[in-house]
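pinging the channel bc i need a second pair of eyes. not urgent but kinda urgent?? the chain im working w is below, pasted from the shared doc
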Amino acid sequence: MSSFSQQLTTMGLRSLDFNQAETASLDALLGQLDTEFASLQQQRPNSKGDDLLLGLMTKTHLSALEQCQTTESQSHAMRDLFVQQLGQEHAARFDNQHHGHFLLVTRLWMLVLGYQQIDLSYAADHAQSSASLLFPDDATGPSHSRAEQTRRRLMQAYYQGKASARHTARNAEQNKPSVSFVNSLRDWFQRIFDR
């Protein structure tokens, strides 16, 4: 069975845009998840790989969400201190590592949700709530706020997963022998062996 990273690549991971810092974090995260996924496959050899992958990503997403929520008050206090000491413009240059990790994990999770054909409204609700968690003062909707840009990036991952699933299904369908060919082959074998 393929590794976690290989399955995400099939789902369209390399079609998503990542900046340099995200790429470094992504590589480290994929290494960790490859190990966890291989362990899950050994523990549950009869489980479908897609189910294991969705379960692992959901667990990872919930863990990142919990970490982000539990550190939110400290992050908010730190952000306020930076604004007071450095001003709004300079304070915006500092990134919260928990936020970055949560966003990265959520994008991967949304990719898997799309590939697994999970309901669009479920994914949209999570994209909205995740963007609002990361940027509570920003509005989403027809704007160019950070929250809206984040929501769009999350939904982009979801739609990439859906598109990859359609592409995979189409390729599988094209590689299947046609019913008429299979029927012709069966008829030919019957004629030969009925003699």
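so The first helix runs from residue 4 to 10. and The chain has a mean pLDDT of 84. — does that match what u expected or am i reading it wrong
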